[in-house]
Amino acid sequence: MRLILLVLVFVMGCSGPAERPQKKLTQPTQQFSSTCPEGTKPQGGAPPIHFERWCELEGGERHGPYTEWTPEGKLKSQGHFDRGLKSGVWSLFHPNEAVQAQGRMVAGVKTGEWKTYYSDGELESAGYYASDRYQGVWKHWYPNGNLLSEGKYEADLRVGPWMDFHDNGQKRAEGSYIAGNRDGNWSFYAANGQLTSQGLYKNNRAEGRWKFWTESGVLVDDGEYVADTPHGVWQQFYDNGKPKSRGMYFGGKQTDFWTYYHDNGVREAEGEYYEGVADGQWKFYDRDGKLEEEGTYQTGRFHGAWRGLKNGKPVYEGEYRSDAGHGKWVFYHPNGSKKAEGEYKYGKETGPWKWWHPNGKLKTSGEFRDGRRHGRWRFFDADGKLTTEGEYSHGKQVQGTWNPPTPNP
């Protein structure tokens, strides 16, 4: 009787994927008789001795009811064979023996409507197969019963309009597919329903203008794609809506002139890129718009003259070569007076160096060799009085009166 009811329900449901049933399917809906059809012999048996039971024709083909158990003795699958091929209604089971999937087999392949279930009996998906491939409309649900996705398949590939949802029921994405690839306008949403991105796909690649928003609805990115790669003008914004950056991409790499901004809308930096790295003149500004640093890059490295300022007064000035200080450098106190002066050679101090107190009096003088103190060094107090002097050799004291111990310049 149960088998007849199952087949009847299945046939009646073939008009289209049913809406999610209100009642859970928590128990197997089909029991199979151990009686084999005429002309077959029973094979195998039930646990714990056997884990398969089937009927077999004289030639060895399976024919008739079939049951399979797991090594733990739990029901795993049930169905029928027709001369060696799966046929009719088949059921697969979770480890707790609740139905996991159920549908019809024809000549060994899934055909017609199939449904899958979570282990608690809640419906997980419903749709159709043709020759073992997804075909037609399919729906998928979350464990809480809310719809997860809905759309159409052709030969296992998504086609036409599709919609995806968050587990709270809010829309997550909507757009169209062609042969399994996103194609056309697509929109994506946060769980609160806010639109978070929108743009065009061609053959599953982002193309043309795209916009991105925060979950609170603030625009944060706005730019162009070519074949899934940023290309053209791009703008970024802070969460407060103020501009963050603006510039050009070429083939996914930053190029030409770019401008960056502080979150108060004041310009923060500006300069040029070449193939994704800073190259050429750059300037940096504080939150009040005052120049803080300026200099040149070469293929992403500090190279050439640089200077720093604070409130319009110099902080340092010197030159770089391939990211390393090279040549004369001068540093300044906040009052604008000179603080230190000397030379670098590929990032290491070299030759004579001098330091001054903020009042302009000499503080320290000495020489470097390959980045280490070498030769005679002298130290003075704020009144210009000599306090200590002595000799260094490759960074180590060798003679002189060092009392108190040698201070750092």
Descriptive terms for the model:
409 residues; mainly beta; Histone H3 K4-specific methyltransferase SET7/9 N-terminal domain; 35-stranded antiparallel sheet; 1 helix; elongated; disordered N terminus
Could you walk me through the main structural features you see in this protein, from its secondary elements to its overall organization?
With 409 residues, the chain is mainly beta. The chain has a domain at 36-134: Histone H3 K4-specific methyltransferase SET7/9 N-terminal domain. Helices cover 3% and strands 61% of the residues. It contains 1 helix and 35 strands. The chain has one helix at residues 2-12, and strands spanning 40-44, 52-57, 64-69, 75-82, 85-93, 99-106, 109-117, 123-130, 133-134, 136-141, 147-154, 157-165, 171-178, 181-182, 184-189, 195-202, 205-213, 219-226, 229-237, 243-250, 253-261, 267-274, 277-285, 291-298, 301-310, 313-321, 324-325, 327-332, 338-345, 348-356, 362-369, 372-373, 375-380, 386-393, 396-401. The protein has a 35-stranded antiparallel sheet that branches. A hairpin with a 5-residue loop joins strand 19 (229-237) and strand 20. Mean pLDDT is 91; it is low at 1-30.
The gross shape turns out to be elongated
Assembly annotation: single chain
Spans where pLDDT lies below 50 across 5 or more residues: 1-30
CATH topology of the domain at 36-134: Histone H3 K4-specific methyltransferase SET7/9 N-terminal domain
- Treating each run of at least 4 consecutive H or I residues as one helix, how many helices? 1
Distance from first to last alpha carbon? 99 Å
The level of helicity is: under 10%
